[in-house]
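Dear colleague,

Thank you for sharing your sequence with our group. We've completed the structure prediction you requested, and as agreed, I am returning the results in plain text so they can be pasted directly into your records. Please verify that the sequence below matches your submission; if there's any discrepancy, let me know and we will rerun it promptly.
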Amino acid sequence: MERKVYFDNAATTPIRKEVIDLIHKTLSDTFGNPSSTHSFGRSARTQIETSRKSIAKHFNADPQEIIFTSGGTESDNMLLRCAVQDLNVKTIITSKIEHHAILHAVEFLDENRLAKVSYVKTDAEGFVDFEDLEKHLKADKTKKLVSLMHINNEIGNILDLDRVSKLCQENDALFHTDAVQGVGHYAIDLEKVKIDFLSAAAHKFHGPKGVGFSFVRKNSGLNPFIVGGSQERGLRAGTESVHNILGMAKALEIAYNKIEEEQKYLKELKVYAIEQFSATFPGIHFNGCCSDLDRSTCTLINVSLPVPEDKATLLNFHLDLKGIACSKGSACQSGSVKGSHVLEEVVPLSHKNNPSIRFSFSIFNTKDEIDYLIKTLDSFVKE
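Please find the predicted C-alpha cells below.
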C-alpha cells in the first residue's frame, strides 16, 4: 500500500476528530436559523454566542469584538477596506512579503486612489526593519494603518507584535495583523498587546474550512462590510454557518488547552527535521530564519535544496508520487507559474536556482515520517 505523508499543514490542517463529531451533531440537531425567534433559532443563537465567548476568552478580548467571517482572506479584505472607507485611513504601511490577501487588497486600494500604500523594508531574513517602519509612521500627518502578519506563511518568521503595537500607539496609527498562521499555535493577549484588528482562519488550527473571525477592537467606528441583515453586530450580514462556528470554537479550545504540550512536541519534531536535513544535505540552505526556534514558528521549515537545475522541476512530482504532500512556496500560489514573492526577497543569489520547498508540521506528524521524507529526498538527489 502506498504511504501517505502530509507535510503541508501551513496550507490547511486535518480536522480533529472531536471537531468533526461536534460539527456532525450540530448539523443534525442545531439546524435553526440563528435569526429566527422560535426555539430552534434561539438554540442556534445561544450556541453561536457561547462560541463567541469561548473564542474571546482565549485572547482576553470582549465577545463583541469577535466577528465571524468566511476565513482569513475575507477578514483581511474587510478590515483593510473598512479602515480606509470608515476611519479616514489615507496610508497603509505593509511589507512585500505579506500574504496575497493583504497585498492584492492594498494594491486595489492604491490603484483606485482610495489609499496610498507604503512598503516597509525587510532584512535578508525577512524581518521588518523597525527604524524604517518608524520613518514611514512619521513621514507625514495622514491617518495610517500598519498591516503586518504575525507569522509568515512561507518562511515562518515571528513578528514582534508588542513592538509594532507600541510604535503604532506612539504615532497615532492603527495596527492590523494577519494572524492566520499564529492563532491556535501561539497565545496572543489582546488586552496586553494593543492590536486594533486581527484576522484568523479555523482550518489552520485543525478546524473546518470556510470559517474564521476578525477581532475588531471596541468602538472602532467600522461600518458594515456586507449589508443585508443585522448579523455579526451589523458588520457582516448573512445567516451564520452554525456548525462551522461551533467547530472553530471547539478546535481553538482544544488548541489552547494543549498549547504548551503541542508546542513542545512540534519543536522537537522541527529540531529533528533540521538535524536530519543538515546531516543528509550539507549544501542545504534554510530560508529566512526558519532554523531559529526562537524567532520562527515551530510549525514549518522552508529549505533550499542542493538539487541540480535540470532535476529541480521534477522534485515536487517525485515527492507527490511517493505520497508526500508539501508546498513549493505558498500553497495559495501552488498553481501559479510565478515564483514566490516571499522567497524572492530572502533567498540569497547563490541558492536562487535551487528548488525551495516548505514542509509544515502538525501534532499528527511523526519522526518516522521525517525519516521517510529524508530517505525519499536523498534517493532522488543521488539518482
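Summary note from our side: The two ends are 23 Å apart (CA to CA).

Kind regards,
the structure core
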